[in-house]
Amino acid sequence: MLGVWFLLLLWGLAAPCQGLLETVGTLARIDKDELGKAIQNSLVGGPVLQNVLGTVTSVNQGLLGSGGLLGGGGLLTYGGIFGVVEELSGLKIEELTLPKLSLKLLPGFGVQLGLHTKVGLHGSGPLGGLLQLAAEVNVSSRVALGMSPRGTPMLILKRCTMLLGHISLVSGLLPAPLFGVVEQTLCKVLPDLLCPVVDSVLGVVNELLGTVLSLVPLGALGSVEFTLATLPLISNQYIELDINAIVKGVAGDMVDFPKPHVPVKVPPKKDHTSQVTVPLYLFNTVFGVLQTNGALDLDITPELVPSNVPLTTTNLAALVPEALGKLPPGRHLLLSLKVKEVPTVMLQSKKATVSIAAIIHVLSFIPQGTPEALFQLNGVLTLNAQLAPSATKLHISLSLERLDVKLASSFSRAFDASRLEAWLSDVLRTAYVQKLNVDLEVGIPLPKILNVNFANSLLEIIENAVVLTVAS
Question: Domain Lipid-binding serum glycoprotein N-terminal spans what residues (predicted)?
Answer without folding.
Answer: 29-271
